[in-house]
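Notebook entry, structure prediction.
Reason for the run: the old model in the group folder had no record of what sequence produced it. Starting over properly, with the input documented here first.
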Amino acid sequence: MQRVGFIVYPGFQIIGLAAATAFEVANLVNDPPVYEVSVHSESGGTIRGSDAVSVDSATLDDTHFDTLIVLGGTGIPDPSPGLVQYIRIAARSVRRLASICTGAFVLAEAGLLDGRRATTHWLLAPELRTRFPAIKVEEDRIFLIDGAIWTSAGMSAGIDLALAMIEKDLGREIARSVAQKLVLYHRRAGGQSQHSTLLALEPKSDRIQSALDHARRNLRNSLSVEELAEAAHLSPRQFSRLFRAETGESPAKAIEQLRIEAARLMLEQGRHPIEVIARETGFDDRNRMRRAFLRAYGVPPQDIRRNLADA
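New structure, fully documented this time:
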């Protein structure tokens, strides 16, 4: 049995323990069961989370773990010296040491992320970079693997991290079966973006939302202002004015963002040639897509594909 320990502390986010369920379901799917999952804290006993939920925990001792996962909290954790020292020592013997969300700050305090690629919740990634400049912080990732150290983005990304661990241990089909039983899409790629263009635009009216939905379903089209205005049942002039007022972007800029997001998703989920991705997402040719990626990410699509393979 592989021991998987989740480390909690006062103020931890309960959603982080959802990742434990993935290991639990893996035991139901795989024969024989593989994982022995437990929750631990520095002091043991009942630990209160960030809201009204508390959990029972065992005291951290000299138990050997295969995998240790440090949970995050709603803010930046302030781990005790004892917890930091425990994690620093445990890192020498575990096969995998991981963090969910702001748990990365605990690993950072222990000096375990220095010189490594790491991620955390996008909102606090700049603070992680400022406090610990030796870390190669990549805020726009669902999770990252650097050697034996795994770090994930905010909260629910911990489930993606757990599914990735299960896939490495037991294979893709078991991980897929676990995801299905959890009623989840099979895990998001580690290099996948934490952000959604549609969520970022936040249209306030159904008309603009309808236009964006039309655009997302028809990215191969030219998606002119006239076409989008027709989907929104507005004149082109009314549409352009309302679109900018609600989203803060021009229609052309928003459509480019949707195309980039779709193209990046195709890069993450398959091995389609760049030319095919460019055509399917409305860029028409690879050079136009390359210029858009350089504007958005500072690197061409080929570099992002290589980085995803390394994630």
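Summary: Residues 251-269 form the longest helix (19 residues).
The old model has been moved to the deprecated folder.
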